[in-house]
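Request: Show me your protein:
***
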Amino acid sequence: MSTPVTAKMVNDLRIQTGAGLLDCKKALVEANGSTEEAITILRKKGVASAAKKADRTTKEGLIDSYIHVGGKVGVLIEVNCETDFVARNDGFRAFVRDLCLQIAATDPLYVSREQVPEADLAKEREIAAAQVQGKPPAAAQKIVDGKLEKYLSTVCLVDQSFVKVPEKTVKDILTEAIAKTGENIQIRRFVRFKLGS
């Protein structure tokens, strides 16, 4: 027997996830009234939706800045979206501000893996290989791959664990923002300044 989906349940899910009312209702019906299952359904749809929007042009957006308390660290970031309407939205602005805080706290070097120079990857691979000399080749390769993965998740913004919700990555937060706004969003570039460096 299915659980009836009430307007309050739909509204509560909408507030919790930021998804549209119709999407929330459909997810609750599909999840037989279970809020947790509905959230999972919405997250899966958000990932699929984000993939579909990846090719859309992003000509609008926001340039934001953040100066950390004490004035020793500052961040300047450009995040693009499809329309000015979304760029002026408080949710989008909060998302961009969270990215600034992430960059100030974690000091990434690149937005994504595609931006990491091949020379840097080769250097990290060489260092990791030197650290596993004497190990069986299959084990050594797994260790090198693991160290390279750890390096990439440290220097690439979208692969980092999100400082406000450590169980999610920045890419997860970006996907959720795309699902909420219904537009393609791209983190174009950023610069992190630190006093004396």
